[in-house]
Amino acid sequence: MSSNQVNTAQTVTCCTMKELYDVVRTRPFNQPFSVHYQDGRTDTGLNSEDDLKASLRRHGNAYLKEPVDVVVERG
Q1: Three-state secondary structure along 6-62?
Q2: What residues pair up with 70 in beta bridges, in sequence order?
Q3: What is the pTM (predicted TM-score) of this model?
Q4: What is the pLDDT of residues 27-60, one digit of tens each?
Q5: Where do the structural domains in the chain lie, given as residue ranges?
């Protein structure tokens, strides 16, 4: 990356499954994203809805009982 390029990230707090899937589905094509959980844990490098579902299950939040922050790197 050259010094002229700025890497920005879009962070969205999602409280519903609809919000969560809207963010994942509208991100730039093939752009990885991260999910930050309320307890401080983070899953990075997620690439698909299936990755998202697996992450939510691993963290005991399959039905989004707790809000999560989704971070999509934009570059």
Answers
A1: CCEEEEEEECCHHHHHHHHHHCCCCCCEEEECCCCCEEEEECCHHHHHHHHHHCCCC
A2: 12, 35
A3: 0.85
A4: 998 899 999 999 999 999 999 999 999 999 999 9
A5: 24-74
